[in-house]
Design brief:
Shape: globular
CATH architecture: 2-Layer Sandwich
Number of helices: 4
CATH class: Alpha Beta
Number of domains: 1
Helix content: 25-40%
Largest sheet: 5 strands, mixed
Distance between the termini: 26 Å
Structural class: alpha/beta
Strand content: 15-25%
């Protein structure tokens, strides 16, 4: 994993680069570890991450992992934008969750890294 900080519209945002096949978020603890690494290494409280670095179980809402992770990140003041292709997910609850998240101010699920940067710096 490689982190670098971008400043856009006076907002510090960490951009996470990873090796293909490397999963950075597999459970709640790995998500907390990533968040603390971002804060410690960059000082940023917003992070951009490819959805390919997130285990598929994150996108299965019924197991509770997603809610647990996002709640912990909110408690620590972390915002995130996950970019990638979400079109193959057919779960109505997940589609609704993504839509509602994108209406909020803390977590976004977008198509491109550029769109993620725009959302977090708005």
């Amino acid at each position: 994993m490689n982190l670098h900080k971008v400043i856009q519209n006076h907002v510090e945002i960490a951009v996470v680069r990873f090796c293909p096949g490397e999963l950075l978020i597999t459970d709640t603890q790995s998500a907390l570890d990533l968040m603390m690494s971002v804060k410690y290494q960059t000082g940023a409280t917003s992070v951009i991450l490819s959805k390919q670095a997130v285990a598929e179980q994150f996108f299965i809402l019924r197991n509770g992992t997603t809610g647990e992770i996002l709640q912990k990140w909110i408690n620590y003041g972390m915002k995130a934008a996950f970019w990638g292709d979400y079109s193959h997910y057919t779960s109505k609850p997940l589609q609704n969750f993504i839509r509602e998240s994108n209406r909020g101010r803390d977590f976004f699920f977008v198509s491109t890294e550029e769109e993620a940067l725009e959302k977090l710096s708005a």
